[in-house]
Design a protein that fits this description.
mainly alpha; 105 residues; 2 helices
Length: 105
């Protein structure tokens, strides 16, 4: 359910109303989702995980292939931005699930 972005209570209603916006209430079971806040955790997860992987990848590409600078300018934003959004969405969902299951709201 965490990867699919479903309500932590019923497992059927969508958790997100947009890309990263949490719905105020679950449309299926009526759970008040506004009480659950992920804080800055998803952004920190994206910075640590995606940032580390991107730096390792950039170093490997630079030192093994030695491409021109414009190749880095094209490749890394195309890889890092969607990956960061995916990691933030999963991390936000996971933190809300943990808050719900440990009754932190």
């Amino acid at each position: 359910m965490v990867l699919r972005g479903r309500c932590p209570n019923c497992g059927t209603g969508p958790l997100f109303s947009g890309l990263l916006d949490i719905r105020p209430t679950c449309r299926d079971c009526g759970l008040d989702l506004s009480a659950y806040d992920a804080g800055d955790g998803p952004a920190v997860a994206a910075i640590f995980v995606v940032g580390a992987l991107a730096m390792i990848g950039a170093f490997l590409v630079e030192f093994r292939l030695e491409p021109p600078l414009w190749v880095h300018a094209v490749i890394w934003p195309l890889l890092v931005l969607p990956t960061s959004l995916a990691v933030m969405r999963i991390a936000k969902s996971a933190l809300i699930y943990q808050s719900f299951h440990h009754r932190r709201a």
